[in-house]
Design brief:
four-stranded antiparallel beta sheet, globular, 111 residues, seven-stranded mixed beta sheet
Length: 111
């Protein structure tokens, strides 16, 4: 059983940056892939980024602005978010497949 806890969200102005963390209670070493998703108010949860082995992939809407990384020794996955836009406002969740989700952290991009 793995429990995931996201942190690092908050209120930031457009163009600003945030770094989200997803800390696991157990080892994430065995999870080949780790994901970040987000859900804006009134919308479906959507894929943001994945790190699988040494490879990463991103939703088109965040490519070039967001970077996913992991530190297996710290059992933590990160999402560095730069050049934030109002449309990035959402609750951000991490996922360890098949269905270990964190509780989410709110990111609000606004003046």
């Amino acid at each position: 059983q793995v429990q995931l806890v996201e942190s690092g969200g908050g209120l930031v102005q457009p163009g600003g940056s945030l770094r989200l963390s997803c800390a696991a209670s157990g080892s994430i070493f065995g999870f080949h892939a780790m994901y970040w998703y987000r859900q804006a108010s009134g919308k479906q949860r959507e894929f943001v980024a994945v790190i699988s082995g040494g490879a990463t992939d991103y939703a088109d809407s965040v490519k070039g602005r967001f970077t996913i990384s992991r530190d297996n020794a710290k059992n933590t996955v990160y999402l560095q978010m730069n050049s934030l836009k109002p449309e990035d406002t959402a609750v951000y969740y991490c996922l360890a497949p098949p269905n270990y989700w964190g509780q989410g952290t709110q990111v609000t991009v606004s003046l």
